[in-house]
Predict the structure.
Amino acid sequence: MAAGSLREALEAGGLFARKSLGQHFLLDLNLTARIARTAGIQPGDTVLEVGPGPGGLTAALLDSPAERIIAVEKDARFVAHLTGFFADAVASGRLQVVEADALAIDEPGLWADSPPAAPVRLVSNLPYNVGTPLFVKWLKAGAWRGTMALMFQEEVCQRIAARPGSDAYGRLAVLTAARATARIAMGVPRLAFVPPPKVESAVVVVEDRPDPFDDLAGLEHVTALAFGQRRKMLRASLKALPDHTDLLAAAGIAPEARPETVAPEAFFALVRAWRQHGGAPAAR
Ligand code: SAM
């Protein structure tokens, strides 16, 4: 497919970008091919793309070895456009275009008719307004979810992949580290988009770790307290946890430490200690 034909289809259909849906489009097919490659798609894979919009990234996914691509789009105009533009792939069943709000869907229901043999890869250029909640939803997802290659504002990618001691390190990095390892695979300049957003973007690749820390509810609770008062020492910010100085000692964390210096593994140990002391909310 030529990039020109994608632009022409958008113009012919009067498909302008809607700010309310975070619409910034990638029409450079060399770029979308590079993004798709970061996902390491293997023959037989099922890929879920959220927010396909005009279909530049969808075209790259169709060029990949993926067996099946499911594209979930909230904007009915693009559902109609994609169904027509990729009519052959839709007719063959390789591409399924679903009109839905990705925040509200139960993903496994999308492939209930023929469950994939391997975990589903997520490859998306996410809308800025819902990117982080979608990412946290997928981080918590069950065994259906495989490797994620996701485009966000660069600043969000940095917060996902951050290491202790950096300004970007916070709750999102700790939650990510519980389930996965994350790396920024490529930057994408703002001028690559139509229309250009205000900030630069990047693609982060998130791969599950073999030894996950599964008490994400506990981790969300403890890190909300710890990072909610980022400049305070943990012995002050964690006061709401009963016996908090004992918990810090059990986790091997200095009471004077500030949260941005504490490694994810030490937060996991803190949550374990808190649970052993009867900490709520209940584990999921
Ligand atoms: N993937 C396309 C590209 O790279 O050109 C479009 C990316 S654009 C940043 C985000 C897309 O997500 C838009 O098509 C928008 O309509 C869609 N979108 C926004 N909110 C959504 C939601 N809650 N569920 C599904 N799609 C959504």
Remarks:
- The radius of gyration is 21 Å.
